[in-house]
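Intended use. Records such as the tRNA pseudouridine synthase A entry shown here are meant for training and evaluating sequence-to-structure methods. They are not intended to support clinical decisions.
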Amino acid sequence: MNTYRITVAYDGTAYRGWQRQENTELTVQGILERRISEIAGKKMVVSGSGRTDSGVHALGQECSLYLEQEIDMDSFKKQLNALLPEDIRVLDISREKRDFHARKSAVGKCYEYQIDLRDKMEVFHRKYRFHFPHPVDIAAMKKAAEYLMGTHDFSAFTDLKEDKDTVRTIYAVGIVYEKDTLTLSWIGDGFLYHMVRILTGTLLDVGIGKIKAEEIPEILKAKDRKKSGFPAPAKGLFLGRVFYTEAELKKAVQKISEK
C-alpha cells in the first residue's frame, strides 16, 4: 500500500463544508473523492485533517490517500486539477510513510480570521472577510488572548453540546492590525465545532468593551456558551496550515508570538 499526502486549497463559499454528506454533493471531500475515483477507475476515499464548516475556506487542508499502485505525483496532480472546479485546487502531492494519517498524525493547526474594520467594506473583501465597522481596543484583545492560551476546557466556546472531550490547548494567538484589516491567527492542538469563530467573536466583543478581558478566566470556568461571544461568520475563516512535526509547530508559534 502506498500512502500519499495531498495539500488542497479551496474557496468554501459554494460548499456545505469539507466533510462528505449523503444529502448533498456540494462538499469539498465529496468532490475530491469523485474526481480521484475517476482517475483511479474505482471508488476512492480521502481522509482530511479535520472538518471545516459550511462557507469556511482553506489555504492548506491536508488529506491522506492510500493507493495499491505507485503514481507519478506530478502527472496525478495535473490530472486531478484538470477535473476539479476552479474553487478547489491541489497544491501538492507527496509520498508519506505507510502509517501517515492526515488527522491522526497532525500535532497542531493554524486558523486565520480576516476582519474588515472600515466604515464601508472594501468591495473585493466581501466574500472573504467579516465586516465589523467599529473601533476596537487592540490592547484589550491581546490581554484577553493571553487568558485563552494554554490548556483549558473550552466548553463555553463550542456550539456542539455532544462533544465529550472539550479540553484543548491553544499555543499562540496572533492579533495584527494593518490598513483597516484585523487578522487573528490561532494555533492549537485542535479546535471544537465553531470554536475559532466563537473565540474570534469573543475577542471582538472585548475589543468594543462588551466583555472585559479580565472576564475570560470566569467564562472558561463557567463552561457556559451563553457567557462567551458571538460566532463570527464563516466567510472570514481560513484553515491556514496543518503541522505534522513539533519543529514546524514550534517555528510557527514563535513567528506569531513575535508579532
